[in-house]
Amino acid sequence: MNAPINLRDVTLEDKYTLERGTVFLTAMQALARLPMLQRERDVAAGLNTAGYISGYRGSPLGGLDQALWEARKHLEAHHVVFEPGVNEDLAATAVWGSQQLALFGGARYDGAFGMWYGKGPGVDRSGDVLKHANFAGTARHGGVLAIAGDDHAAKSSAHAHQSDHMFKSVAMPVLAPSSVQEILDLGLHGWAMSRYSGCWVALKLVGDVAESSASVMVNPTRVETRLPTDFELPADGLNLRWPDPVSAQEYRMHEYKVYAALAYARANRLDRIVWDSPRARLGILNCTPSTVSAVSQYRWPGVAWIQSLLKCTPSMPPRQL
Fold it and tell me: Peptide bond before 4: cis, by omega within 30 degrees of 0?
C-alpha cells in the first residue's frame, strides 16, 4: 500500500492570509490582495504606511467592489481603507487627497498609497481630476495606481473603449498586465514607479485579464524594485508639495516626471523579450494577453517577440528613451 501523502491544509481564506506560497485568485481578488502586499513591503522597509481605495464599479471591474468588501477585515488588518465612490470623479478626488497627508501636521502614518478604479467610460469622465492629480503629484511614501477596466469588445458597454489614449493625454504612464500574476507584480512596480516619478500610474486591465483566474505566487519580496542610475532627479524631488504654482507643475511634468517613469521602466526591465530567435530578421512588439496567445501559437524562425508592459509616451519629442 502506498504511504499516505501529507498535504498542506488549504482554506478559502488562504488567498488573503497565506504570507508566501501559491494561491488561487481571480483578477478581482488579486486587486484586493495587492494593497496588503504593498503594506507588508513597506513595513519590512521600516515604513508605517496605510492604504486608501476608492472608485466606481463597472464591467469588466464589476466584481471589484464585492471582492474588496469580502476582504474588508483583511484590508483593515493591513491598515487599508476601502470607500467606494459616488462616482469616478469624486473617488479620484478622494484618492488625490490621500497623497496630501504629509502637508499637515499630526499624521499617524508616513504616507498613504492609493488605488482608484473605474471602467473605460469612467476614465473618460474623470479626465479633469486625473490630470490635476497627476500634475500635482504623489507622496514620497504614497503613490497611486489608477485601475482601468477596458471592454475592447463592448461585451457589456455601449461602446468599445480603450483607456490608453485618455491616460496619455494626462501624461500618465500605463502598465498593461497580461495575467493575474502580473496584476500583482506590475501593481507593486506601479506604486514604486509612482513614488519615484511623482506620477499616478495606470494599470490597464482588458476583459480577458479582468475576468480570468489563476494559481499565482504571493510573496511581498517577490518583486525586486531598482531605482534608476541613469536619471538625475531635481534637488527638490518630484513629489507633491504646497505651495506649488501651475508653471512649476508643468515644468516638472514635461521636463522630469514622464522621463523618470521611463527611467524606472528601463531599470526594472518592464519591457522584455519573451521569445527570441538567434537569427531574428523581424521583431514584433506587443503587450497584454495578445502576446501570450500569439507566441504560443506561432513560433516562426527568424522572429523575436518583445512584450511591452509600459505605454508611457511623452507628448513631446523624447529626450531619454
Answer: no
